[in-house]
Amino acid sequence: MRISIAAMTDVGKVRSHNEDAFVAVDLGDPQWRVPSDSDAELELSEHGALLAVSDGMGGAKAGELASSLTIAALVREMRELPVAEAPHLLQEAVEQVNEQVAAAAQSRDREGMGATLTAAWVRGAEAFIAHVGDSRAYLVRAGLMHQITKDQSYLQMLLDSGAVSAAETAAFPYRSVILQAIGTSATVRAALYRVALCKHDRLLLCSDGLSSYVDARDILAAARGSAGLSSLCAQLVALANGKGGEDNVTVVLAEFDGQELHEPEDGLELSNSIETLDAEKHG
Predict the structure, then answer these.
(1) Do residues 234 and 276 make contact, with C-beta atoms less than 8 angstroms apart?
(2) What is the per-residue pLDDT for 160?
(3) Residue 222 reports pLDDT greater than 60
(4) 254-280 core/surface letters (b: 16 or more CB in 10 A; e: else)
(5) pLDDT tens-digit map of 84-103
(6) In Å, what is the CA distance from 271 to each residue of 59, 70, 193?
(7) How confident is the model at residue 281 (pLDDT cuts 50, 70, 90)?
(8) Which of these CATH numbers, 3.60.15.10, 3.90.1150.10, 3.60.40.10, 2.30.30.240, describes 2-276?
(9) Strands 249-257 and 2-10: what pairing?
(10) Taking all residues of the chain, what is their mean pLDDT, rounded to a whole number?
(11) pLDDT tens digits, one per residue of 55-87
(12) In Å, how far are 12, 66, 132, 178, 193 from 58, measured between CA atoms?
């Protein structure tokens, strides 16, 4: 299977530091990484590809450190795991990453350090998505888009309970409060999803610097109108900055093709291609 990948991160128009981090690597080739601001193509090996976005918190240097540590530890853990079919390998790796970042956060100047993490492990015709916090993963297929992950945030909890309506979310004062993050406690339980991929699917990972300011309809409109992944990354970053650029924004995009992938079926709901594995036990 072939994967086309592009990624971009931007400090925005207000912040002085970029606390976001991302990665797109071939787990079978330590030398391969997606170049900045251009499309790259990858022939998928048995080890698969790893894509991830992390948004740090804890203030300036601590936030930058948290996200960079999270990404580096995830790549290391995934490369050390044996090649296997177990879907929970990614979830287990995230739990190991949490322990490492939590240990690093013990010093006084790193108090409160933590990070979100949304990661995709692509193997064969499937992608496994692990999720902690409020960065997001979307699936774009045949002109439609579905949000794979669910924000682990105070706002989402209130939406789920009916205490806040969708119309009230834009003005909600605590929309950035998340309920779980990498490194802020001794243990973490990543939500886990399995996505059955089709030809020409696009997987979008992003920090909340995009999803909190750019409506999903505008994200989809950009995805429909842009052919190249790197140009789409630039367009999405520009949309976020056009809304004020109040946060760092990071986008990772991947498009899939190959003989083992099927054409998408007409009328098939995108949600039918996404399975939640979080409730399953490790094994």
Answers:
(1) no
(2) 78
(3) yes
(4) bbbeeeebeebeeeeebeebbeebeee
(5) 767 789 999 999 999 999 99
(6) 37, 29, 11
(7) very low
(8) 3.60.40.10
(9) antiparallel
(10) 90
(11) 999 765 688 999 999 999 999 999 987 777 677
(12) 18, 8, 16, 13, 28
For the chain, the structural domain boundaries read: 2-276
The CA-atom distances, in angstroms, between 78 and each of 22, 188, 275, 277 are: 15, 17, 22, 19
Distances (CA, A) of 251 to 31, 53, 161, 176: 22, 8, 30, 18
Of the candidates 95, 71, 79, which has an alpha carbon nearest to the alpha carbon of residue 192?
A: 95
pLDDT of amino acid 32: 86
